[in-house]
Amino acid sequence: MLVLGIESSCDETGAALVRDGRYLLSNVVASQIEIHNRYGGVVPEVASRQQIAAIIPVVETALAQASCSWEDVDAIAATYGPGLAGSLLVGLTVGKTLALARELPFLGINHLEAHLYANWLRPQVDAAIAAPIPQEEWRYQSGDPLFPLICLVISGAHSEIVLVRDHGDYELLGRTRDDAAGEALDKVARVLGLGYPGGPAIQRMAQQAEDAYAQQKKSVKKARNVYRLPRAWLRGTYDFSFSGVKTAMLHLAEGATDAAHEHEDGKPSTQYTRYTRMGEQAAQTGAPDIALLAAGFQEAIVDVLAVKTRMAAQEYQVKQVILAGGVAANLSLRTRMLQELQPLGIRLSYPPIDFCTDNAAMIASAAFFHLSLGEHHGMDLDVQPGLSLPFRK
Ligand code: KG4
Ligand code: ZN
């Protein structure tokens, strides 16, 4: 079954063709990062207008790159939530209209669930050699993640630990009580002047700090602990809280900026707190300390995500953990998760970097599994900006 997937939930416009939920024929993503970088974050009104400009060329390019015609396509799927209403409307309307015009089945897809299904995608070279999957074998193919599994969903707006017993069977074990991990990374990066999106920028700066330490024959671990930032463990739960560590970072960054300013003026600082003192110290020693701050902050977030996910995997005795969402692209998190899980014999999988952040291949993949269950949607399907994963009650 060949599915055309369309993704437009935020600031990326994507179209992809995926066979049997796993084999990628094409994946096209038009990003608006440069535009939103000017504002330090996504401007919804700008995002939806850019979606309109990009979507038709993106769909046409996806078909061309897959060397497919409309006759080859079996179904069309588009994200209907969660996300920005204006952006979602563009992809959903285009998807429904194309399905109507081509008389194809249409399916609206939950963007978060699609992030999970990015773990079912194979490298593109496999598509050429893979035989079509017999319809009755849609549930499992060798190389797929194994149920039951624990999924750590970490995107710009979500941080959740989810027990997945089977396709479509989700139980929420824990969620963030305030900021999502990605949100905290984005906000802190903005304050540190590192631009948008924050996750990759923080990762780059942290890497600089670690490289500098390695060159001086000092341990990388030390670089991550120069600024020992607070962790909210919320023991006895699988919930997260990242607002405390974010606020600590904001104070540090503020202190750094204030101190830099005061030193330029030649005036002594009048107000000292623990944070401004640390910030002043950072400002005095110059740019490398921004890198050390980034390393400390990334470590604080990775620490909590990795330990709590490992604990959930142990409690529910799963053989597999998967990572899903933009923050799953983080190399430090991937390494740390491996360190937590390998000694326990628990398998870890995560999508290739390009399939962690928003893309349409994951939409087409998720659609295959729902279509195989006999589901589809009518033309009256509306966007649901606040949609969550369909958890069992
Ligand atoms: O899943 P995603 O592309 O969009 C949403 O559905 O929200 O996730 C975006 C988030 C942003 O917060 C971004 O900073 C973060 O993923 N991100 C990363 C990395 N790449 C993207 N965070 C940490 N390390 C990365 N390499
Ligand atoms: Zn996403």
UniProtKB/TrEMBL annotation:
Segments forming domain Gcp-like: 24-122, 142-364
InterPro entries: ATPase_NBD (IPR043129), Gcp-like_dom (IPR000905), KAE1/TsaD (IPR017861), TsaD (IPR022450)
Functional description taken from the UniProt entry: Required for the formation of a threonylcarbamoyl group on adenosine at position 37 (t(6)A37) in tRNAs that read codons beginning with adenine. Is involved in the transfer of the threonylcarbamoyl moiety of threonylcarbamoyl-AMP (TC-AMP) to the N6 group of A37, together with TsaE and TsaB. TsaD likely plays a direct catalytic role in this reaction.
Species the sequence originates in: Dictyobacter formicarum
Keyword Cytoplasm: yes
Gene that specifies this protein: tsaD
Presence of keyword Transferase: yes
EC number(s) given by UniProt: 2.3.1.234
Name by which UniProt lists this protein: tRNA N6-adenosine threonylcarbamoyltransferase
Cofactor(s) the protein needs: Fe(2+)
Key words, A-Z: Acyltransferase, Cytoplasm, Iron, Metal-binding, Transferase, tRNA processing
Catalyzed reactions: L-threonylcarbamoyladenylate + adenosine(37) in tRNA = N(6)-L-threonylcarbamoyladenosine(37) in tRNA + AMP + H(+)
